[in-house]
């Protein structure tokens, strides 16, 4: 359970750092444009951009392929970061090729602005990319209940109340990282028929199967009581 709480914190921090780095690069690019741009050796810049782009996209593909088995949000964010790096390098490569091509032409005056303008455009595209991860991470940290999961648990619980003649139920659902925490309390009538422990366990098994997604990442608690205070 400790890992469940740690995971969204790390994901949120990583997403904020990625966005912050892109914002910082955008500010530097705007400052460079206002200062008259900067001169580059475009032939060396092209070689650097090609190598960086190839490595970044290879790492992104490798991470996504591995994550089909691992299912880790950490790896997913890392792959997204590599995509961002590769996209940045690809955009800069196009800009560097353009800058190299205009050398000795009437457009050569634009060459100092090629790098900062391309960087600014890429940053504007990259900045929103981690926002979804950041939003989900903070929702997990604050234990915001996913609406679809809550509705599913409530449907299962309502059906159990109807089939076994319970008075009502209380459900508490939260998602923390990859973990799902579900607590169900069923209020039984005080004058209801007695049941063996095996029968109560069988009802729990039915509820667990109906909720589904049984794995080490699902924390499911099911309680039966005649005292409503235990459920509130």
Automatic annotation (TrEMBL):
<feature type="transmembrane region" description="Helical">
    <location>
        <begin position="12"/>
        <end position="33"/>
    </location>
</feature>
<protein>
    <submittedName>
        <fullName>Cation diffusion facilitator family transporter, putative</fullName>
    </submittedName>
</protein>
<dbReference type="GO" id="GO:0016020">
    <property type="term" value="C:membrane"/>
</dbReference>
<dbReference type="GO" id="GO:0008324">
    <property type="term" value="F:monoatomic cation transmembrane transporter activity"/>
</dbReference>
<feature type="transmembrane region" description="Helical">
    <location>
        <begin position="45"/>
        <end position="62"/>
    </location>
</feature>
<dbReference type="Pfam" id="PF01545">
    <property type="entry name" value="Cation_efflux"/>
</dbReference>
<feature type="domain" description="Cation efflux protein transmembrane">
    <location>
        <begin position="2"/>
        <end position="142"/>
    </location>
</feature>
<dbReference type="InterPro" id="IPR058533">
    <property type="entry name" value="Cation_efflux_TM"/>
</dbReference>
<keyword id="KW-1133">Transmembrane helix</keyword>
<keyword id="KW-0812">Transmembrane</keyword>
<dbReference type="InterPro" id="IPR027469">
    <property type="entry name" value="Cation_efflux_TMD_sf"/>
</dbReference>
<keyword id="KW-0472">Membrane</keyword>
<feature type="transmembrane region" description="Helical">
    <location>
        <begin position="113"/>
        <end position="131"/>
    </location>
</feature>
<feature type="transmembrane region" description="Helical">
    <location>
        <begin position="82"/>
        <end position="101"/>
    </location>
</feature>
């Amino acid at each position: 359970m400790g890992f469940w709480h740690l995971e969204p914190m790390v994901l949120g921090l990583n997403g904020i750092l990625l966005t912050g780095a892109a914002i910082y690069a955008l500010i530097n690019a705007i400052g460079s444009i206002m200062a008259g741009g900067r001169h580059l050796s475009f032939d060396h810049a092209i070689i650097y951009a090609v190598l960086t782009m190839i490595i970044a996209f290879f790492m992104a593909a490798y991470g996504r392929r591995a994550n089909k088995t691992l299912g880790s949000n950490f790896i997913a964010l890392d792959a997204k970061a590599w995509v961002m790096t590769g996209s940045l390098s690809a955009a800069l490569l196009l800009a560097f090729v353009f800058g190299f091509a205009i050398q000795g032409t009437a457009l050569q005056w634009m060459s100092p602005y090629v790098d900062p303008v391309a960087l600014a455009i890429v940053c504007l595209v990259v900045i929103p990319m981690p926002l979804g991860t950041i939003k989900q991470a903070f929702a997990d940290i604050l234990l915001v209940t996913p609406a679809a999961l809550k509705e599913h648990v409530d449907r299962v619980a309502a059906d159990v109340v109807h089939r076994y003649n319970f008075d009502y139920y209380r459900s508490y659902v939260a998602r923390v990282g990859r973990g799902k925490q579900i607590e169900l309390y069923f209020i039984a009538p005080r004058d209801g028929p007695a049941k063996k422990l095996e029968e109560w366990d069988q009802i729990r098994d039915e509820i667990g199967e109906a909720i589904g997604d049984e794995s080490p990442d699902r924390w499911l608690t099911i309680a039966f009581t005649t005292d409503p205070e235990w459920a509130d």
